[in-house]
Design a protein that fits this description.
Layout lengths: L4 E3 L17 H21 L3 E15 L3 E17 L2 E9 L2 E2 L19 H7 L6 E10 L2 E10 L6 E5 L6 E5 L1 E8 L5 E8 L9 E13 L2 E15 L2 E14 L13
Parallel strand pairs: 1-8
Antiparallel strand pairs: 2-3, 2-14, 3-4, 4-5, 6-7, 7-10, 8-9, 10-11, 11-12, 12-13, 13-14
Helix pairs in contact: 1-2
Length: 264
């Protein structure tokens, strides 16, 4: 089962080639179906690879006592490996210094995963019974892009949310919704956002994740891979945000030794 988890702890082609009209229902559905086939095959099409994920985390607070602003909390440097269609995250540096803390441990705070196919699978899996509605055309990187609104009801969702403090964590499966930006020619998703539905145990909780994809070279071939993601979590006593940059993609090698020297 593909799932992705948010954890909280205490704490464009040129304009002349742009499709000019709203597509009819058949054409709109055809682009979604094309994207579904590509997205469902996505995790199987990726090679085994490694990359570095740099995560900058913030909290919403008073800047200089005058206004709300995003205040830096810390920076995580993570070795991310994708091997046999599974993600593994290994925390290497915390604020530029070596650390023995674990990426997915409760004491590390807010983390997010699923950019490498988990979110896409949850949206396009027929079992999710996702509803899609065409919204508009836009231009991105000089290519025509179809923008769609989607929604997955709680009863068909596999989206797992945990909230609370260590020792008092509460979990729930919730629905979600958002938008997809799909390349008109290739059918590939190049941007998505993902918003939680109602969380019964924490009605004030809201998580919004955005992911940007682009072509990246790995071992001489180009693949559509995440280059940036952002997650914002709102709760009763405040808000937090994390921004991830995915860098230095390379072929997976069990013998690889990476240098994560301090302040790198």
């Amino acid at each position: 089962m593909h799932r992705f988890v948010h954890v909280l702890t205490g704490m464009v082609l040129v304009a002349s080639l742009m499709p000019a009209e709203t597509p009819d229902s058949t054409d709109a559905a055809a682009l979604i179906e094309k994207s579904r086939q590509i997205s469902m095959a996505y995790i199987h099409s990726l090679p085994d690879f490694m990359c570095t994920e740099v995560v900058s985390r913030y909290r919403l607070g008073n800047a200089m006592g005058m206004r709300l602003d995003w205040l830096p909390l810390d920076k995580l440097t993570v070795s991310l490996s994708y091997f046999q269609q599974h993600e593994t995250h290994e925390l290497k540096l915390l604020d530029g210094l070596p650390t023995d803390r674990k990426f997915n441990s409760a004491d590390i705070g807010m983390t997010s995963t699923g950019e490498f196919g988990g979110i896409l699978t949850s949206i396009f899996d027929p079992a999710s019974r996702t509803s899609f509605r065409w919204r508009s055309w836009k231009t991105l990187h000089d290519r025509p892009v179809g923008v769609y609104v989607y929604q997955v009801e709680q009863g068909h969702s596999k989206y797992y949310v945990e909230t609370g403090k260590p020792g008092k964590m509460r979990s729930a499966i919730v629905g979600f919704h958002g938008t997809l930006e799909i390349d008109h020619d290739s059918g590939e998703v190049i941007h998505l956002d993902h918003v939680t539905g109602h969380v019964p145990s924490a009605p004030e909780f809201k998580a919004v994740t955005e992911v940007d994809y682009d072509k990246v070279e790995v071992a001489g071939s180009r693949y559509m891979l995440p280059v940036h993601s952002q997650t914002r979590i709102d709760r009763r006593n405040g808000a937090m945000k994390s921004e991830s940059e995915f860098q230095d993609y390379r072929k997976f090698d069990v013998g690889s030794k990476l240098d994560f020297g301090a302040d790198k």
